[in-house]
Specification:
The chain folds into two domains: about 325 residues, 3-Layer(aba) Sandwich (Alkaline Phosphatase, subunit A); about 100 residues, no CATH class. The chain is about 40% helix and about 15% strand. It has a ten-stranded mixed β-sheet with strand order 5-6-4-3-7-1-8-15-2-16, with helices on both faces. Strands 9-14 form a two-stranded antiparallel sheet. A hairpin with a 4-residue loop joins strand 11 and strand 12. Helix 3 packs parallel to helix 17, helix 11 packs antiparallel against helix 12 and helix 15 runs antiparallel to helix 16. The protein starts with a helix and ends in a 6-residue tail after the last helix.
């Protein structure tokens, strides 16, 4: 009898142990475009700021589990964000450009967020770009094309998750059907409250059953596609850290249910498309601040929380070191604005000087925003390049813009960015994605499952395994 009792107790203990190890609260962070060197570069940059040749670690790189993942899509060796987002969300490869469907562009596949919802968890999807952009959309939408923004917006409501956040909707009105419902007006129909900015969220969240958090209307009137880069931010701008804090707060209304939260650092990718090293590293730092919000929650619930951090792909083919056996990353500390931010400065100068800007005014702006001539010594060749671009573009000529994936910038802004990258000894292979490995970091309940080299399709399935979700195609 004693032996039988002991055996029963052992089985019960083992069952309770397994149950306790399941993740009740899951955080899934995706740094868009954040390859291994984007992370390493940020840590080396932080080290140089502290006067040493060594990494100054980010919060998430100190998680006990770390590995890498492959990112190719079903049809391309180099993925786009839609196919990569679908892989990270659903565990299925698909065609570049497709959202939440297989490569036949018709068969829908459910995401880990849906698995979580169907397992009784509260669910949130958040990003620093528009809420209907490729990565967040992959968690709730089923569309053949990532650019079907209005349809993706209607899918958002159909999915019915508890919390969404981003800069705004890209297409709140259906451009093809003037009789179709406005996405903002659909919020009431589906039981959502829309908050505009962090302060508005704090005033509305207590009474809201479901929430959509956007930046202020003033901010959206300037740029609805994303919140501003960290390097360009003002006190009025919403931050990814605030978005994450709001999501945790809202999903914690009923902790007994547990929750799943995906947060995307979307503008790391944008900065890398522009080959803007300083802006990219600042975006990784900003992403880390958002992750710290989750880590604080983890410290309060360490046995029930899982945090996974990864990326959808690498962007730009960033190189740390361009031939010399050294780096000079500290130089980019002097860059005070993004390439796009400096374009806005030059645009203002065009208006002030009626399109004929004095060289001295340009020099002052470059010194203030890049540290040239003051903190950073330029070679004769570098100064000649700046002067040449100035002569061709700012002395009575119309603006000549250089186009990247998400921006069109003044030629002088692009040249200044290239020069400070050169001085920092940062190189770029392209303005597009690469097939480089992306990092994976994990901590908490079930984090031990994330070991060995992974493919991106394995990550949502491992999250489901760690949290006890039923995987549903």
């Amino acid at each position: 009898m004693k032996k039988l009792y002991f055996l029963f107790a052992l089985v019960l203990f083992s069952y309770n142990l397994c149950f306790a190890q399941q993740a009740k609260y899951v955080f899934y962070f995706i740094g868009d475009g954040m390859g291994v060197n984007q992370v390493q570069g940020t840590e080396l940059f932080q080290g140089e700021l502290n006067g040493k040749i060594a990494i100054e670690p980010l919060c998430f790189t100190q998680f006990p589990v770390s590995t890498v993942a492959t990112t190719f899509s079903a049809t391309n060796g180099v993925t786009d964000s839609a196919a990569a987002g679908t892989a990270l969300a659903t565990g299925n490869k698909t065609k570049n450009g497709a959202i939440g469907v297989l490569k036949d562009l018709e068969t829908p596949v459910n995401s880990v967020a849906v698995w979580a919802k169907n397992s009784g968890r509260r669910v949130g999807i958040a990003t620093s770009v528009s809420v209907d952009h490729a990565t967040p959309a992959a968690f709730y939408a089923h569309e053949a094309s990532r650019s079907s923004y209005y349809n993706i917006g209607t899918d958002l409501y159909t999915a019915g998750f508890d919390f969404y956040a981003g800069s705004d909707f890209m297409e709140p009105k259906n451009k093809k059907d003037s009789n179709a419902k406005n996405l903002y007006k659909m919020a009431d129909e589906y039981g959502y409250s829309i908050a505009r900015g962090y302060k508005d969220y704090t005033s509305k969240s207590a009474k809201a059953d479901k929430m959509i958090l956007f930046q202020t209307e003033e901010a959206s009137s300037k740029d609805r596609s994303a919140i501003p880069y960290a390097i360009d931010r003002t006190e009025k701008d919403m931050t990814l850290e605030e978005i994450t804090r709001s999501a945790i707060d809202f999903l914690s209304k009923d902790l007994s249910k547990g929750f799943f939260l995906m947060v995307e650092g979307g503008k790391i990718d944008w900065a890398c498309h522009s080959n803007d090293g300083a802006t990219a590293f600042r975006e990784v730092q900003d992403f880390d601040k958002a992750i710290k919000q989750a880590y604080e929650f983890y410290k309060q619930h360490p046995d029930e929380t899982l945090i996974v951090v990864t990326a959808d792909h690498e962007t730009g083919g960033i190189v740390l070191g361009t031939g010399q056996y050294k780096l000079n990353l500290k130089a980019i500390e002097n860059q005070k604005t993004s390439e796009s931010g400096f374009t806005k400065i030059l645009n203002s100068m065009r208006k002030e000087y009626k399109n004929n800007v004095p060289w001295k005014a340009v020099q002052d702006a470059l010194e203030e925003n890049f540290g040239f001539w003051d903190e950073i010594e330029l070679s004769e060749e570098q100064e000649a390049r700046l002067r040449s671009v100035y002569e061709k573009t700012l002395k009575g000529q119309k603006a000549k813009m250089e186009k990247s994936e998400y921006a069109q910038d003044e030629a002088l802004a692009a040249e200044a960015k290239r020069i400070i990258n050169e001085i920092a000894l940062i190189g770029w292979v392209s303005g597009d994605h690469s097939a480089g490995y992306v990092p994976v970091f994990a901590i908490g309940a079930g984090s031990e499952n994330f070991s060995g080299r992974l493919d991106n399709t394995q990550i949502p399935k491992l999250i489901a395994k760690s949290a006890g979700y039923m995987i549903e195609e």
